[in-house]
């Protein structure tokens, strides 16, 4: 019985190490990863004026 538990534990450790290495290579090092792009459209621009009055404070612009 203890031999079976040891074999299951060893198999689990080996499998988790193999899965971690596959995940690390694919997602962190981007090995064999497809190129991804995004299409961005700017629809409006807003100007925000802070309510605190101070010298030299300009409106901040936010793109939405």
Structure explained in plain terms:
The protein has 64 residues and is of the alpha+beta class. The protein has a two-stranded antiparallel ribbon. The protein has one helix and two strands. The model has no long low-confidence stretch (mean pLDDT 79). 42% of the residues lie in helices and 12% in strands.
Contiguous helical run count: 1
Strand content: 5-15%
In the sheet with the most strands, the strands line up as 1-2
Helix content: 40-55%
Global morphology: elongated
Mean pLDDT: 79
Rg from alpha-carbon coordinates? 27 Å
* Uncertain residue ranges: none
Q: Assign the structural class, choosing from mainly alpha, mainly beta, alpha/beta, alpha+beta, or little secondary structure.
A: alpha+beta
The SSE order reads HEE
Number of strands: 2
Q: How far is it from the N-terminal to the C-terminal residue, by CA?
A: 64 Å
Main beta sheet, described?
Answer: 2 strands, antiparallel
From the structure above, extract its key features.
alpha+beta, two-stranded antiparallel sheet, elongated
Describe the protein's topology.
Elements: H1 2-28, E1 45-48, E2 60-63
Antiparallel strand pairs: 1-2
């Amino acid at each position: 019985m203890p031999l079976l538990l040891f074999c299951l534990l060893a198999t689990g450790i080996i499998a988790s190490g193999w899965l971690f290495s596959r995940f690390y290579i694919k997602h962190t090092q981007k090995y064999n990863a497809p190129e991804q792009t995004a299409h961005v459209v700017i629809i409006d621009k807003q100007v925000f004026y802070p309510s605190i009055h101070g010298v030299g404070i300009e409106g901040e612009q936010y793109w939405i």
